[in-house]
Amino acid sequence: MQPANIPVKDRLIVGLDLPDVERAEAMVAKLGDSVNFYKIGYQLAYAGGLPLVRKLADQGKKVFVDLKLHDIGNTVARGVESIARTGATFLTVHAYPQTMKAAVEARAGTDLKILAVTVLTSYDDSDLHAAGYRLGVSDLVEARAQQAQVLGVDGLVCSPEEAASLRKIIGHQMRLVTPGIRPAGTATGDQKRIMTPARAIAAGSDYLVVARPVIEAADPKAVAEAILAEITPPLAA
Ligand code: C5P
To answer: How many structural domains is the chain composed of?
Structure first.
């Protein structure tokens, strides 16, 4: 299967990691037509941000709901059905087989796509060991990626450093969504494994999640446009 034919503008997902809806809506207005895709995570969702998913979808924007669900299958399924009704495009779940199976079944017949988080990027081998796991990070990421593929999960969230090796395992059928992106010359913050936008796309990422470099910039629109310019393929001669 060939790499996904995704419009460049849809490849940048701006994380609305902001404390309230008012500030999130102001950021969306500031970014205007330059950004098509937004991510709403814990901070905004738990501050009354979920209705913004429908509002943005009604404006023609795509929304990634990053709630990393994990519960008994029935509870996951009912949650996925509710999120599907908001018009969201992506929803994250943790990559446990029961959870992924329930989520994939519940999103059938809707436009929602399920992304699995294999191993949180803040975990290293010793964190996994402390949590009772036998496998180290790279083996567990690989095992969970394979399980996700077998279960029909639509994509994976991974660090850009993992993208190339995961691409070899899962082929081009699943989407790879990568945070940890830093345009050259911007602050790294607490992200340890980072890549520039162009390198992440070259490594096999389909979508780049960028929050602080855009939303904390003096001119967020200019930063978003620069990222899009960096990942726009040159016109064929
Ligand atoms: O500000 P920054 O660009 O680092 O934000 C990246 C976004 O991606 C944040 O919303 C963060 O929660 C999310 N994320 C991440 N690493 C993961 C999964 C999600 O940074 N492994």
So the answer is: 1
Determine, yes or no, domain membership for 193: yes
> Is residue 236 assigned to a domain?
no
Q: Which of these ranges, 35-39, 170-174, 218-222, 230-234, has the smallest mean pLDDT?
A: 230-234
Percent of the chain with pLDDT over 90: 88
Whether the pTM exceeds 0.90: the reply is yes
Domain of residue 127, CATH code: 3.20.20.70
Which of the residues 68, 101, 113, 168 is marked catalytic?
68
Q: State yes or no: is 68 an active-site residue.
A: yes
Tokens 């669900």 belong to residue: 69
Q: Is 193 in the pocket of ligand 1 (CB under 6 A)?
A: no
Residue 12 belongs to a domain: yes
